[in-house]
Design brief:
Radius of gyration: 21 Å
Order of helices and strands: HEEHEHEHEHEEHEHHEEEEEHEEEEEHH
CATH topology: Double-stranded beta-helix
Shape: globular
Number of strands: 18
CATH superfamily: Clavaminate synthase-like
Strand content: 15-25%
Low-confidence stretches: none
Structural class: alpha+beta
Largest sheet: 8 strands, mixed
CATH class: Alpha Beta
Helix content: 10-25%
Bound molecules: fe (ii) ion
Mean pLDDT: 93
Distance between the termini: 35 Å
Length: 399
């Protein structure tokens, strides 16, 4: 199968392009080398990329040259996939869906990029364009106080399994990372970057405290070298007996929206319009507790909804559907939010060594792809569906 997509990439981009995949046992994951995203994309190239993500769910365009590739180039690239959504971390709290009146951008010195720039002055600075409201700076460093320096690095246990912003009337459908720096230090017992936080006999929080121990074991089996962990919900769906697929095909879930203060039933099983691949869209009872309310299944009580979705989550998190994606500087990695769920791994924070630095830029998009730029989203659609009516500025599109 990779031969066919490889041929399409070579026809569109040139004979120097190479594809490797699938990267995961489930059939997900494609790594493409030889595409320089400093160059604007032609429609024929965008089409191949859209098809590749539809088919492989996770696609890495490796080897961007970080001395010339900027976050502005990255945001221009993101515009082909959908309209980029501003990220709440760039605004004064309370964030995004919890307030709708006069949200204010954080002052420059409090922006995530400024805090990163204060950690290793002269050694590691965010790439140009990282200040965009649409860019989430994912970093484990900031300028440390004397007490923090004295205390040394801390260990976070990773996030809960989720899909990015699935509760909007139009959910996000793709997220992407540009990797600036990935950790290289391997000093934990066993030669990993961090020790296994499960050795702490930690409480289940922020998952429900009474969660099933077996399910908790699957949730907490996370990579220890800063990889992003994915579960392939298309492969998990395909592995189900057809009677079960039919049953799930009729299920509607209700996700609470802070924006509209209501729930609308949406299908649990989604079909990718390009590939025709069916998948389970964020089949989780409580994707990001305590920030989000539990999901309810249409026609079920809250308790029955939780039991039902826990069972699906345990199915999806089995080893054969899991994939831990290792990051390298210069990678642009996209993932389809309808066909995967993901989790941020345990990481070291308050780091004092550049070897431990993990610095990514993330952009997430919604709406239709665009073969040419600038996008032509109707202003009333942008106003309704994109926080603050944001559109990428012209100077970024023309970077
Ligand atoms: Fe996420």
């Amino acid at each position: 199968m990779v031969k066919a997509i490889n041929e399409r990439f070579r026809q569109a981009f040139g004979a120097h392009v190479r594809c490797a995949g699938p990267l995961a046992a489930s059939g997900a994951g494609l790594r493409v080398s030889g595409i320089d995203l400093c160059n604007p994309l032609r429609p024929v190239e965008v089409n191949v990329l859209l098809d590749a993500l539809g088919q492989y769910r996770i696609v890495t365009l490796a080897g961007q040259r970080l001395d010339s590739f900027s976050v502005a180039h990255f945001e221009r690239f993101a515009n082909h996939w959908g309209a980029p959504l501003p990220h709440p971390s760039n605004f004064k709290r309370p964030a995004l869906d919890r307030f709708m009146d006069n949200p204010e951008l954080l002052p420059r010195e409090e922006r995530p990029s400024s805090r990163v720039n204060g950690a290793f002055p002269g050694e590691l600075q965010c790439l140009p364009g990282a200040d965009s409201p649409a860019v989430l700076v994912v970093a484990n460093m900031h300028g440390l106080s004397d007490e923090e320096r004295e205390a040394g690095p801390t260990l976070t246990r990773g996030t809960t399994w989720h899909t990015d912003i699935e509760h909007h009337p139009i959910p996000l459908h793709v997220s992407m990372f540009l990797v600036h720096k990935a950790p290289v230090s391997r000093d934990a017992p066993g030669g990993t970057w961090v020790r296994d936080p499960r050795s702490d006999s930690a409480p289940n929080a922020p998952y429900f405290e009474d969660a099933d121990p077996e399910l908790m074991g699957l949730r907490r089996a996370l990579p220890l070298n800063g990889e992003t962990s994915y579960a392939d919900t298309a492969a998990a769906y395909a592995a189900l007996p057809s009677a079960e697929q039919r049953r799930l095909g009729s299920i509607r879930v209700r996700r609470y929206s802070y924006a509209t203060k209501e729930t609308v039933p949406v299908p649990l099983v989604r079909t990718n319009p390009r590939s025709g691949i069916k998948s389970l869209h964020s089949p989780l009872s409580c994707p990001r507790p305590p920030r989000q309310l539990p999901v309810e299944v249409d026609g079920m009580s809250r308790a029955a909804s939780r039991d039902f979705l826990d069972e699906i989550e345990a199915h999806v998190l089995q080893r054969e559907f899991r994939y831990d994606h290792a990051h390298s500087p210069g990678d642009v990695t996209l993932w389809d939010l309808f066909t995967t769920i993901h989790v941020a791994p345990p990481i070291k924070e308050n780091i004092q060594s550049l070897d431990d630095a993990r610095l990514f830029y993330r952009i997430s998009c919604k709406g239709e792809p665009a073969l040419t730029l600038p996008r032509r989203d109707p202003p009333e659609w942008v106003e309704e569906h994109i926080f603050l009516g944001y559109t990428t500025p012209r100077e970024v599109i023309e970077v």
